Amino acid sequence: MMSYCIYLRKSRSDIEAEQRGEGETLSRHRTALLQYAQRHALHIGAVYEEIVSGESIAARPVMRQLLTEVGERRWDGVLVMEVERLARGDTMDQGVVAQAFKYSETLIITPLKTYDPNNEYDEEYFEFGLFMSRREYKTIRRRLLRGREAAAREGKCLGRAPYGYRKVKLTGDKGYSMEIVGQEADTVRMIYDWYIDGILTCDGRRRLGIQAIAKRLNRLSVPAIRHDYWQKETVRDILTNPAYAGLIRWGYRKQQRRIGSDGRLISRLERNESCIVSEGLHEAIIPRERWERAQQLFSQQPPAPVGYRSAVKNPLSGLVVCSSCGRRMAMRKGSGGRPDYLVCGRRGCDTVSAPLHLVEKRLLDILGEWTGGYRVAPKEHASADAEDVGAAISRREKELFSCERRLERVQELTELDVYSAEEYVSRRAAIAAEMELIRQELRRLTEQGKKTAPLPVARTLVEIYCELSSAAEKNRLLKEIVAHAEYSKTVSARFRGQRADAFDLVVYPRLAEKRVAACDEA
Prior knowledge:
This protein is an alpha+beta fold. It has helices at about 10-20, 25-40, 60-70, 90-105, 120-155, 180-195, 210-220, 230-240, 290-300, 355-370, 380-415, 420-450, 455-465, 470-480; strands at about 5-10, 45-50, 75-80, 105-110, 115, 165-170, 175-180, 200, 205, 245-250, 255-260, 265-270, 275-280, 320, 330, 340-345, 355, 480-490, 505-510, 515-520. It contains 14 helices and 20 strands.
């Protein structure tokens, strides 16, 4: 039986129509395409819904999944409302979509026309439709950006209102402004007072930094913005936001794109100093001169070293987790001759930090003990079978995941009355039987992998680790063999006479089902 799927995506025009009260778009499109399929006796195997209006395929996860399945020839055709729903990205994205349907010989079915990508005329018409959709997208995007820039210059509020304000509709005009929220505004004024004037102590007044302000707000149990506690980044954003001085800033965070060394597109937000800053229509919480004074104090802070945020400084980065809360532990840079520490950053967690070099040494000792009883063969002879087994396990895991998704889709289509109860039972039983066969094969491969696990990698790691000079290289080596390590320490060594290495570390290797534990006996 030929099988088809439905792809639904909400565009910007659909969102605007919904705001005018014209109904939910995806629901209407789903009904129309299901009725079309029923009239033409098309068997629908899945319904995909994309609720994001992304420019590129990379920003649309459901579309990426659909293209993968189309490339695997899972579907004989895809039903969409218009071909423009498939791709509005650049020329590269359009080429990916066109080739995926052409090489898999998958039909594109719309209520008005069916496109066969292997038909010369249909292919040209399809590519022309993608080209026109791209032009339409660029036109809409350009109009929206111009409208937002004009609104920013007029002092209107764009996006979400910052802490201390609420967004309100302008009376007799298009757009929004902001009004002050009393209790939150008092917190904002208090933050500026602490940062500019400081607090009164027995030695006089002492200015507070952003970390000290965050801790003080948490001690006072001031309700936080998005988390259950205040973070220093939140305080920094409040102190540098010109909205509190009665200004509107637009375009400060600008998306920058570049091609990396591996050919992949890298996108990140960077500061744009030439952004729009205009007088706002809202009332200021902080007087202009005090806000400018806060910026002056901020500019006196020493700049971060070049590449500080991008370079890996912690060789255990992403590997050690807190046994109490499960959060990834991070490195805190030591100062004044003190060593670097491994800490849990979760507020309220009772885990005590430890010197990073001691945790690193304990981890290497555990790995050394793990490989100490093995006669290691040369790597080129020991790893070939293990790589084959690992690849087979990876394929079976993907197949199992695919079966689980198919099971979910069967349930969804049954709820939509596409499948009857009898069809649901039979399809569920068939998928369950397939999943059991895959699980049996996974168990067999896992047992085989234990015998061929490439332990020479672990021994090589211990031997050459200390020869590496870069924390990034050390971290990469550790991640080849360590899945994660659980750290546990609840007694402070500094104030209770405990040793600094009085912590427990449980290591979970990546290449074998083996648990290695080392607990301090002190």
